[in-house]
């Protein structure tokens, strides 16, 4: 009988486990803490950036791109420390429609500049999904050769909701790169047909990449971007496309004569190149140098920089006011109520906006 009870014993019977020790070693805690990465102070970051430390530069850009209030304050301290050492570079904006070969061109152009002894920083802005809000950020992968160059630095950033494909803190990133010793800053925009005013307002030279045979040489939709461009580069002028590229160059030259004269006194140029074969890249750089020689001589270079500083003062105020409005707890509550009222047609969007703004400025 006893044997039968032993055989019928439940398989779900709970067994005593091994008790964990109640006291944790203070020595182990100390070792773990010592191995953890310590975040540098703003002063340490600034000092490292001024020594040309790319890791410190990346950390600082991450801080200024963050929306965390603590990060913003620390990032502002770094910017303030780097400010006296900025403004010692040339800033070149590069845009073009998707598929024009921006990344390939920038890699070939950047490699050419580093062979001339230049230190090149690439701030590449990738489009963010309007659905998932994510970005691929694959520029470092696409620029395999340039990313290995000691005299180059590539920083991809998500565009977010920024108009014109420029990341929210791209201008501050430019200043940090300059303080880190980079004398040539290349800014690659999304290039999806949005307004390019934002990038134009933070660079000294605006380069537009085009394709031959796309049938859009004289389209009015391109007029706004073409008027801002200082140089039009027809990329992929290789193989069977060389003849088409030459024809496109002629068409674009005719189109540029229809535009009003620039305040800089510069006549926009058109050239062709093949980024994949690295052909014509030197002509692009020579044209850019001609532009800088002219604008420095006639004083336009400094005037434009001063105007840009004023523009970004106003833009920063607008940005800060917008963030402060939407982060206000009371406004957030009222906004949800008004959103529902607008959806139900109980109030017009304009009247709801007036109510929210009135309450905000009380």
Instruction: Output the helix-strand order.
Output: HHHHHEHEHHEHEHEHEHEHHHH
The helix fraction, in percent, is: 40-55%
**Structural class assignment:** alpha/beta
The gross shape turns out to be globular
DSSP summary: helix tally: 16
Mean pLDDT: 82
Number of strands: 7
Strand content bin: 5-15%
Gap between N and C termini, in Å?
87 Å
Question: What ranges have pLDDT less than 50 throughout 5 or more consecutive residues?
Answer: 128-138, 217-221
Rg, nearest Å: 28 Å
Major sheet description: 7 strands, parallel
State the strand order across the main sheet. Answer: 3-2-4-1-5-6-7
Structure description:
By secondary structure, the chain is of the alpha/beta class. The chain has 16 helices and seven strands. α4 packs across α5. Mean pLDDT is 82; it is low at 128-138 and 217-221.
Key terms:
single chain; 362 residues; alpha/beta; 16 helices; globular
Short structural summary:
With 362 residues, this protein is α/β, with parallel strands linked by helices.
Furnish the topology, listing elements before pairings:
Layout (H helix, E strand, L loop, with lengths): L1 H6 L18 H10 L6 H9 L3 H12 L3 H14 L7 E7 L5 H14 L4 E7 L12 H4 L1 H4 L4 E7 L11 H10 L4 E5 L8 H4 L4 E7 L11 H6 L2 E5 L6 H15 L12 E4 L8 H18 L1 H27 L2 H15 L5 H12 L2
Parallel strand pairs: 1-4, 1-5, 2-3, 2-4, 5-6, 6-7
Helix pairs in contact: 3-4, 3-5, 4-5, 4-9, 15-16
């Amino acid at each position: 009988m006893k044997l039968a009870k032993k055989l019928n014993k439940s398989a779900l019977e709970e067994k005593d486990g091994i008790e964990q020790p109640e006291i944790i070693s203070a020595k182990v805690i100390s070792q773990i803490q010592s191995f953890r990465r310590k975040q540098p102070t703003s002063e340490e970051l600034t000092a490292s950036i001024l020594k040309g430390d790319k890791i410190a530069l990346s950390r600082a850009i991450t801080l200024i791109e963050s929306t965390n209030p603590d990060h913003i304050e620390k990032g502002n301290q770094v910017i303030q420390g780097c400010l006296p050492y900025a403004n010692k570079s040339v800033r070149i904006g590069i845009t073009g429609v998707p598929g024009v070969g921006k990344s390939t061109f920038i890699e070939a152009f950047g490699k050419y500049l580093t062979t001339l002894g230049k230190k090149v920083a690439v701030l590449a802005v990738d489009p963010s999904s309007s659905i998932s809000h994510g970005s691929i950020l694959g520029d470092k992968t696409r620029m395999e050769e340039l990313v290995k160059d000691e005299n180059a630095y590539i920083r991809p950033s998500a565009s977010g909701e920024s108009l014109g494909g420029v990341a929210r803190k791209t201008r501050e990133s430019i200043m940090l790169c300059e303080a880190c010793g980079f004398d040539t800053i290349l800014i690659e925009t999304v290039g999806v047909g949005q307004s390019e005013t934002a990038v134009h307002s933070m660079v000294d030279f605006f380069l537009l990449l085009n394709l031959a045979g796309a049938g859009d040489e004289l389209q009015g939709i391109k007029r706004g971007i073409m008027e801002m461009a200082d140089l039009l580069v027809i990329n992929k002028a290789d193989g069977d496309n060389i003849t088409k590229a030459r024809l496109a160059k002629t068409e674009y030259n005719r189109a540029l004569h229809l535009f009003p004269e620039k305040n800089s006194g510069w006549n926009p140029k058109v050239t062709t190149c093949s980024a994949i074969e690295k052909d014509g890249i030197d002509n692009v750089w020579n044209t850019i140098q001609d532009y800088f020689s002219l604008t420095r001589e006639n004083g336009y270079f400094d005037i434009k920089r001063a105007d840009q500083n004023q523009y970004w003062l106003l833009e920063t105020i607008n940005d800060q006011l917008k963030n402060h409005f939407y982060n206000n707890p009371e406004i957030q509550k009222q906004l949800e109520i008004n959103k529902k009222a607008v959806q139900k047609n109980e109030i017009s969007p304009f009247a709801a906006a007036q109510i929210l703004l009135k309450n905000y400025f009380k």
